[in-house]
Amino acid sequence: MTNKDPKQNQRRQNTLLVRGGTKRSNHKETSEAIFLTSGFVYDSAEEAEARFKGELPGYLYGRYANPTNTMLEERLAALDGAQVCRLAASGMAAVQAALLASVRAGDHIVAGKALFSSCRYIIETLLPRYGVEFTLVEGANTKAWADAVKPNTKAFFLESPANPTLEISDIKSIADIAHKAGARLIVDNAFATPLLQKPIELGADVIVYSLTKHCDGQGRVLAGAILGDEKWVTEELDPILRHTGPAMSPFVAWVVLKGMETLSLRVDRMCDNAQKIADLIGSHEAVNYVRYPTRKDHPQHELAMSQMKNGGTIVAFELKGGKDGAYKFLNALEIVDISNNLGDAKSLATHPATTTHKLFEADVQAELGVTQGLIRLSVGIEDIDDLLEDVKQALDKAK
Ligand SMILES: *Cc1c(COP(=O)(O)O)cnc(C)c1O
Question: N or C: which terminal CB in the chain sees fewer CB atoms within 10 Å?
Answer without folding.
Answer: N
